[in-house]
What does this fold into?
Amino acid sequence: MPVKSIQNTIALLEADATIPFISRYRKEATGNLDEVAVEKIALLLNSFNELEKRKAAVLKAIKTQNELTEALAEKINKANTLTEVEDLYLPFKKKRKTKADAAREDGLEPLAKILMAQNTANIDLSVKQFLSENIKTKEAAFYGAGHIIAEWINENTYVRNSFRRLYARKAQLSTKWVKTEEEHPEASKFSQFEKWEEPLKRIPSHRFLAIYRAEKLGIIKLKIEVDKAEALNLIEKAIIKNTGFSGVKYLKEAFEDAFTRLLKKSFATEFLNEAKEKADEDAIGVFASNLEQLLMEAPLGSKRILALDPGFKSGCKLVCLDEQGNLLHNETIFPHPPQKKTDAASAKIKSLVNAYKIEAIAIGNGTAARESEQFIKNIYLPKEVSVFTVNEAGASVYSASKIAREEFPNYDVTVRGAVSIGRRLSDPLAELVKIDPKSIGVGQYQHEVDQTKLKEKLDVVVMRCVNKIGVNLNTASKELLSYVSGIGPGLAQNILNYRKENKRFTSRKELLKVPRLGEKAFEQSAGFLRIKNAKNPLDYSAVHPESYFVVEKMAKNNALKPEELIGNTEVLERIKPEDYISDNIGLLSLKDILGELKKPGADPRAKKKAFSFDPSVKSITDLKPGMKLPGIVNNITNFGCFVDIGIKESGLIHISKLANEFISDVNSVVKLNQELEVTVLSVDEEKKRVQLSLID
It folds into this structure.
């Protein structure tokens, strides 16, 4: 990235500009950096600020101890990582009384210095001066001095850096079984780790997180170790300057103490944390990628929808929704066993489709989904009524949430869940923003990763998707508005309050009348908020109000009104953006404006298409190796993808079965919600596992 682009981006971030706003409306300043690049700069800026903050705290702490020298201050200020800073701070950290402290109290520090100098002809004679009431033998003296030397070695930056390189190259992760399947209900899930060993640097994130979870549950014990002899050799090379020194054996005893008691534990913890952090980063990245694909799923659009939450014993809860997703009707039908009131249920569906002018039917993909799909398709309905199976992951979470209770205070969770299924068909993004992303079901080990980092990343993803699509200011929920650039929950509620009092917004400028929504929030948000049938037609486009002047100029130069220019491809093709470059607007923004004027408010998402599973497959017992089946990708991991083939259990396509050549990135072959034809490789009915392949 050009230095100027980075500098300008940092300046915008420090001025509290949001990532979507910067990447969409400040392209000249950033050099056309996309949202991913801007996010990366934001993360690096945050890391830098955290590093500088820690440096200041460490410098202050050492200065308070009157131990801060110019040389040490320079080293701390030049440190490029938190690890370097912490290594430099280690000798000055306040800690509990150590064995080394006890040895110092017994007057053994001078002896430790003599040993480290390695220039005494007969160390056994020199030790006599250090004997006392507490230290009665030379062995005790050397033992105590060894504790001091061990501490020095542990705090030696050269030794620590050498150990860091050793662990990075050769650390081995191993596991030991602690609890059997009889002793822990989840032990069987982790049986492969009963006795596992693998180089730490090669372990994939999903396997590390599985091992980490197993240890958290107390099923296994994990260790991170390096070869002891190699580790001790590193210390010897760093410390031994005189191989003929009479006290070499005492130094070697101190080296072993330093390794066994201090360094080994310290670096096992450091590299465990580092591996966890890397695994978290990978897992969060996969989760975020899946979430973005799910949020950008094709919407059906504003249609009248009958949504059905299927079930057997409790029946199928159905609701009818209007074009805006408002609840018109709800009731329960019983088309399946044990009641099996199929005829009555069919008649009811027909009646509701006619009465409410239903255009599409949404069926949740949970229990009794396939049976319900078949039941619906057996009903003689108008050809224009399409039937869709909808992923209902998270719908139950929404139905019991505060948001759902506020939306539907007079209805129970079953009605709310069915409404969520229907709305998800109409506009997946608008509905999914109401659900905690972790509950949507597109990640792995989401409860094991750093929850703060997970939330931060997922929030960025949701914001990116919301602002990429744009939001209808007059219909959007509080949750959807909260993710608009510059808005947040507080202002979102104020917008709703204003909308309630004034019925609707007629212009973007009206936003400035919303309490606490000032010029800054307006600047950041206005371009992402759309107003249908606004006074100014540009208010329904992604053109920012700050650029309306240039559209007006373009229209005037072509003897048109601004509204006559919008969608006028013939005229827009003739306009040269170079003619309108000024101090206020550059070429990149002008090209974006012309593109937007051609298709104002266009939804970047694809159009929803109906999909059908194989009608002969309804459960895992119907599967046979060699079968070719239609399926939809419903989760992506680093080791493969899971595919919904119309049964309760999703099948796994391992990464090795995605293509005939080697691939390292699953997303290079498949995307979430992609329709596939898969081949069944194997079926394990007992473990409920299905292996699939894309390779013929």
Observations:
- The domain at 620-693 is CATH 2.40.50.140 (OB fold (Dihydrolipoamide Acetyltransferase, E2P)).
- The longest helix spans residues 248-295.
- The CA atoms of residues 330 and 684 lie 40 Å apart.
- The chain has five domains: 3-67, 99-287, 305-426, 482-598, 620-693.
